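Hi support team,

I've been running sequence recovery on a batch of backbones for a student project. Most finish fine, but this one hangs at about 90% for roughly twenty minutes before it completes. I'm not sure whether the input is malformed or the queue is just slow. I've pasted the structure tokens below so you can try to reproduce it. Let me know if you need the job ID as well.

Thanks,
M.K.
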């Protein structure tokens, strides 16, 4: 029995990065990575991924399109070179022939009458029956964005403010009179999408909504939502950061992430304000709705950062891949669900498409490092000796003879230097005792002395594992 008072430290998944590090104390975490919040309020590991399709091309995958058009096809993968591959359920693929996409923008897609249409700032292309592609007929504009509404295809992004629509029931009839424009006034269209029966145009500092009203006018402006003061803003809305999820829009603008709550823009990233404000190439930001995890993931590729927002619990964290002994880029460049199963396209020039799921505990063989760092002050700011650190964990489901797994821990007192890492075995799969004790470095009788302790705990195991509490036994030493 170790002398002292035991503190039961619930490791709440609450990350805070809007302050200087020395200002962040428990229950907030200084670092929170590679997990998702459970219904019970714990922090379990995020999904991992493993390769399903290797396209045999040295290109990233920047768009995945779910599409069941025969008994074997599950979707399409698009590369920045403008090539499109059909993906089959037997893990094979076919390069579609015909014209390639040759624009400079991240591709978008829509589906009209069972035909997939893809845009990237040049002539739109369509996926034909068989294994070919062709230019979309009817001389449509060279658009960046496409959508389908009221039995028409709508294209925009061919200039700053205009949009054009096809005749009803057709994707290949484009009368020159079927055009209109959003309000400009120094702004341009950054993104276009459809919600219900409305067109939503995300511009530099505002969002413009157009309704399908029918008749000869076809579309009419419903309203404009001001997000930023266009004269005082530093950075506008990042177009490809716009994500639809949980019956709302989420996006990046001017140093913050936002939620469009009805028609009211609301900042949601105050807890990570400092880190998000450091991002530089925000125009390149893109995001995905990972519905099965109830999170939005945003990626800023130049800084290799991934910010993850849990919209059910209103908390931010970060995701990364463990590379060369440190947190590096999580290489997710495209995301889609094929038959209800999530898949990702690789950011690197690998041509890989991978399954992304909870039952995968590594990133293509690289262990996922679930990390949290928390600073815990002792009662009344009094000095104390930490005689024991005990972790409450759950590993596996029982019945397996798999090898032991471990958790890595280090600590620092009163803003001093970190100790060396201590590696603690967390037991065999399904061990009955959920508690593991951290062994002190150099065999000393305590972890150290101070007025507060900073703990960094890293889990990396190729099996299910969950850490819920840290128990600190502290003996007070006076003032």
């Amino acid at each position: 029995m170790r002398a002292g008072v035991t503190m039961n430290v619930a490791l709440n998944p609450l990350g805070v990065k809007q302050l200087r590090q020395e200002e962040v104390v428990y229950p907030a975490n200084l670092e929170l990575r590679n997990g998702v919040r459970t219904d019970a309020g714990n922090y379990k590991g995020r999904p991992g991924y493993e390769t399903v399709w290797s396209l045999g091309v040295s290109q990233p995958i920047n768009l995945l399109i779910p599409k069941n058009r025969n008994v074997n096809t599950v979707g399409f993968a698009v590369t920045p070179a403008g090539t499109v591959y059909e993906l089959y359920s037997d893990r094979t693929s076919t390069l579609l022939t015909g014209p390639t996409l040759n624009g400079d923008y991240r591709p978008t897609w829509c589906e009209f009458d069972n035909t997939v249409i893809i845009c990237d700032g040049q002539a739109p292309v369509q996926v034909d029956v068989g294994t070919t592609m062709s230019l979309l007929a009817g001389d449509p504009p060279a658009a960046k964005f496409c959508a389908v509404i009221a039995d028409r295809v709508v294209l925009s992004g061919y200039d700053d403010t205009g949009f054009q629509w096809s005749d009803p029931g057709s994707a290949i009839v484009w009368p020159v009179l079927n055009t209109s424009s959003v309000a400009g006034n120094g702004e341009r269209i950054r993104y276009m999408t459809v919600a219900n029966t409305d067109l939503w145009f995300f511009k530099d500092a505002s969002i413009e909504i157009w309704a399908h009203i029918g008749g000869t006018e076809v579309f009419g402006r419903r309203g404009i939502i001001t997000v930023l003061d266009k004269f005082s803003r530093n950075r506008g809305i990042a177009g490809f950061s716009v994500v639809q999820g949980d019956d709302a829009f989420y996006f990046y603008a001017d140093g913050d992430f936002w939620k469009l709550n009805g028609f009211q823009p609301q900042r949601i990233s105050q807890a990570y304000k400092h880190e998000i404000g450091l991002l530089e190439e925000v125009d390149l930001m893109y995001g995905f709705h990972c519905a099965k995890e109830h999170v939005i993931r945003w990626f800023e590729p130049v800084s290799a950062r991934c910010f993850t927002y849990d919209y059910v619990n209103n908390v931010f964290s970060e995701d990364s891949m463990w590379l060369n002994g440190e947190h590096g880029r999580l290489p997710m460049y495209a995301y889609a669900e094929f038959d209800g199963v999530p898949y990702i396209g690789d950011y690197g020039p690998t041509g890989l498409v991978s399954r992304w799921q909870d039952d995968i505990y590594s990133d293509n063989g690289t262990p996922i490092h679930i990390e949290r760092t928390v600073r815990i002050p002792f009662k009344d700011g009094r000095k104390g000796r930490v005689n024991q650190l005990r972790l409450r964990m759950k590993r596996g489901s029982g019945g397996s003879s798999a090898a032991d797994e471990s958790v890595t821990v280090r600590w620092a007192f009163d803003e001093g230097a970190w100790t060396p890492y201590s590696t603690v075995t967390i037991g065999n799969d399904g061990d009955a005792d959920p508690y593991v004790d951290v062994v002190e470095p150099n065999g000393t009788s305590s972890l150290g002395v101070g007025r507060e302790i900073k703990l960094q705990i890293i889990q990396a195991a190729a099996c299910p594992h969950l850490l819920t509490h840290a128990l600190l036994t502290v003996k007070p030493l006076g003032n």
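--
Follow-up from support: It reproduced on our side and the slowdown came from queue contention, not your input. The mean pLDDT is 89. No action needed from you.
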